[in-house]
């Protein structure tokens, strides 16, 4: 808490704040980072394994194997979300499951499941992008900005 805000607190409030800070359990940052790293790495390794299957057995090359690999990972994430398994993994792993494709699929699937009682059109269809909509908007805007920067650098390099 900043010293400016502490000045506005009464002595009793400051004492309570200190006691509250002392009683607050410490977060296990190192173990959380290790779990996130292990689960995120396992998801990426699994994705690489699926991509190698597409390359080896279905005659894809490295460029064309990415799309079906992403689709398989999305389908698996949605199925695990539907059965409630992905939520348990995400609680244990934390940010490790927020790898863009699995986190995105989970957010859409969980919002759809949550609102299914309202019907397919207004419930599932209307609410599935509630959480993921901001991700789509920021992702699209970021891609636009990066493309503009690249175009400017290419244009300046050609001069």
Explain briefly what this protein structure is.
The chain is built from 8 helices and no strands.
Model description:
- With 159 residues, the chain is mainly alpha-helical.
- It has two domains: 99 residues, no CATH class; 27 residues.
- Helices cover 77% and strands 0% of the residues.
- It has eight helices and no strands.
- The longest helix is centred in the first third of the chain and has 29 residues.
- The mean pLDDT is 86.
Brief descriptors of the model:
159 residues; mainly alpha; extended
Low-pLDDT ranges: none
Determine the number of helices (DSSP H or I, runs of at least 4 residues).
8
Please compute the radius of gyration using only Cα atoms. Answer: 23 Å
Task: Give the tally of structural domains.
Answer: 2
H-E string = HHHHHHHH
Mean pLDDT: 86
Based on helices, strands and strand pairing, what is the structural class?
mainly alpha
* Relative strand content: under 5%
* Main pleated-sheet profile: none
The proportion of residues forming helix, as a percent range, comes to over 70%
End-to-end gap: 52 Å
Principal-axis shape: extended
The beta-strand count equals 0
């Amino acid at each position: 808490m900043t010293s400016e805000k502490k000045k506005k607190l009464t002595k009793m409030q400051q004492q309570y704040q200190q006691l509250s800070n002392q009683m607050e359990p410490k977060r296990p940052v190192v173990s959380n980072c290790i779990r996130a790293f292990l689960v995120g790495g396992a998801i990426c390794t699994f994705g690489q394994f699926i991509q190698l299957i597409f390359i080896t057995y279905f005659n894809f090359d490295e460029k064309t194997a990415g799309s079906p690999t992403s689709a398989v990972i999305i389908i698996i994430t949605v199925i695990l979300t539907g059965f409630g398994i992905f939520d348990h993994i995400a609680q244990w792993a934390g940010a490790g499951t927020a790898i863009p494709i699995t986190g995105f699929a989970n957010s859409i699937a969980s919002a759809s499941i949550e609102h299914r009682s309202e019907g397919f059109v207004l419930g599932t269809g209307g609410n599935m992008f509630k959480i993921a909509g901001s991700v789509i908007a920021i992702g699209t805007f970021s891609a636009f900005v990066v493309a503009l920067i690249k175009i400017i650098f290419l244009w300046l390099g050609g001069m």
